[in-house]
Design goal:
Distance between the termini: 45 Å
Strand order of the largest sheet: 1-2-4-3-5-8
CATH class of the largest domain: Alpha Beta
Number of helices: 14
Largest sheet: 6 strands, mixed
CATH superfamily of the largest domain: Zn peptidases
Bound molecules: zinc ion
Strand content: 5-15%
CATH topology of the largest domain: Aminopeptidase
CATH architecture of the largest domain: 3-Layer(aba) Sandwich
Structural class: alpha/beta
Helix content: 25-40%
Shape: globular
Number of domains: 2
Radius of gyration: 23 Å
Order of helices and strands: HHHHHEEEHEHHEEHEHEHHHH
């Protein structure tokens, strides 16, 4: 039998295996510091997008304002391809806008990362103190327009980023309708992804309420943990965590608060529900003195452009940009890449010198030697076969099967 000590060593090697190629290169922190001065996301341009969207009027499902918004997004980003994803819903229907870069990429065939926001705005200002105003639609400068604006910034920049994967952008309809927000557009989109589309979509970052002039980002517990873990080191490098030194060595802003943990229901949950890792970046304390969703400008008529700032939009857009340029978002979900059923002992594919093959190379030495030595000591072929079966069972399962989001 395989001794307990040897099993532990083999287990440890197998657990480390998927990440060895990351550590062989520049550390993530050093890479962030190299990239931060090169970030290009433009807060003023994003802020102009907020003003444009709010100027269209409330973006209610099926409204002329919604159609004008989607037409405008297509016109403003000609290097992307677009599809409108229509679904029967209520009396109006709902329409998600799906954009791809490169324009000939498809989720069916190409590895991609996802970005998105809801573009609809709440039909009622049900958090207004004055009851007479509670049935009025909100302007949605932060709750709606800010997420779209920050994602739009990425759409401007991605064609120049030379990424080694496609990007799918989804602008979701019907997140914020109903008695309590129904999160319906993302459900329709996620539930209609095919098996291969889900497998090709490595992960998804949603932006919602990211323009608050008083920006406070919490640690969101409904996020997929692997993606969520990327936020803290990036925020630290960018100088956004109070009391910690960023790359520039200056005193940091108090923007990202890793110790403030809160659960948020949003479009990302619909995507997590179909086992695609997803997370939201959101400021749930909208307003200078807000301590939670319900005591600021959220779902009130005060959700106006004057309460949104170019600086906040730029901060969040640059964090997303940093994750894309560094590969941090993709690396975070890399263990979920397809072909998890590969045998544990296999010659690296010499025809395809990809980074994954390099990772396998780095592992082949120690693991191969260990297994050879062990086989020699035991000297019984039949027991080797049994151990290989054991080793397969010891491989860590895909992350998607090890967590759940029912912690409400
Ligand atoms: Zn809302």
């Amino acid at each position: 039998m395989l001794s307990r000590g040897r099993m532990l060593v083999v287990c440890a090697l197998l657990l480390v295996a998927p990440w060895t190629h990351v550590n062989a290169e520049e550390s993530p922190e050093a890479l962030f510091c190299t990239l931060i001065p090169t970030l290009e996301a433009d807060g003023e341009r994003a802020n102009a997008s907020v003003a444009w969207q709010v100027g269209l009027g409330p973006r209610l499902p099926g409204s002329n304002a919604s159609t004008a918004l989607l037409d405008g997004l297509e016109a403003r980003h000609p290097s992307w391809s677009f599809e409108r994803d229509d679904h029967a819903w209520s009396s109006t229907g709902l329409t998600n806008l799906v954009a791809m870069y490169p324009p000939n990429a498809t989720l069916e065939q190409d590895r991609a990362f996802g970005l998105g926001a809801h573009y609809d705005t709440r039909h009622i200002a049900d958090r207004e103190p004055d009851e007479a105003n509670q049935s009025t639609p909100i302007p949605g400068a932060n709750d709606g327009a800010s997420g779209v604006a920050a994602v739009e910034e990425m759409m401007h920049l991605i064609p120049g980023m030379d990424l080694d994967h496609a990007v799918v952008v989804v602008m979701f309809d019907a997140e914020d309708q109903g008695e309590t927000p129904i999160i319906e557009g993302s459900r329709r989109w996620a539930d209609n992804l095919t098996q291969s589309e889900r497998e090709n979509l490595a992960g998804f970052v949603l932006l919602d309420m990211v323009g608050d002039a008083s920006l406070d980002l919490a640690n969101i517990t409904s996020n997929h943990p692997s993606l969520n873990d990327v936020v803290e080191p990036m925020a630290e490098a960018m100088g956004l965590i109070d009391g910690r030194e960023g790359c520039s060595g200056t005193v940091n802003k108090d923007v990202y608060q890793p110790e403030t943990r809160t659960w948020i229901g949003d479009d990302h949950m619909r995507i997590n529900a179909v086992e695609v890792p997803a997370m939201v970046i959101i400021d749930h304390r909208y307003g200078p003195n807000a301590t939670r969703l319900a005591d600021g400008y959220w779902h009130t008529l005060q959700d106006t452009p004057e309460h949104v700032s170019a600086e906040s939009l730029e901060t969040v857009a640059r964090m997303v940009e940093l994750g894309l340029r560094s590969g941090a978002w993709m690396e975070a979900v890399a263990p979920q890449e397809p072909a998890p059923t590969a045998p544990t002992i296999e010659e690296p594919d010499q025809d395809e010198p990809t980074s994954e093959a390099e990772g396998a190379d780095g592992l082949a030495g120690p693991l191969g030697l260990l297994l050879l030595g062990w086989a020699f000591v035991v000297g019984v072929t039949s027991i080797s076969a049994v151990s290989i079966v054991l080793l397969r069972k010891l491989r860590p399962p895909p992350v998607s099967s090890t967590w759940s989001w029912d912690e409400a």
